[in-house]
User: What shape does this take?
Amino acid sequence: MKNLKNLLVGCLILFTITSCKKGDDAKVTEGSMSAKVDGKDWSAGLAVQATKTSGVLAIGGTGNGAQININVLSYTGVKTYPIGGGVTSTNTTQAIYTSTSIPPVVYNTMVGQGSGTLVITKDEGGYVEGTFNFTAKTTAGVNITITEGNFRAKL
Assistant: This one.
């Protein structure tokens, strides 16, 4: 039940970040995110956003045919957060890689589907920065590996 609750909160955060509207003249992104996806370079050239509220940090980047979202449900500031873990894990940090193809393919670290590490190196001046890496799976059991991830996002 706790994993279901965490999944629902993570989805709510994801939809909140991706549904924000900007004016036509507004700058879409004031940050950066990049990683290697199964060894290939990926970058979020379209949008990088982060929100921090009520102990939850949500970071998202979109570009190059995919989106990466990382949700820290028990955020306490600069430190290392484990991502995912086993089915019985009490870890509250999840990562999601979603291809923007039709239909989209979702790779998730929740409920024993993967694991990794998020390192928050800065949280000051209205920006959050850090590094990440994780492995994730689809519900069909297909794996993906995200390495050398880094980001800087405006809160």
About this structure: The longest strand covers residues 143-154. Residues 6 and 12 are 10 Å apart (CA to CA). Residues 2-19+32-154 form one domain.
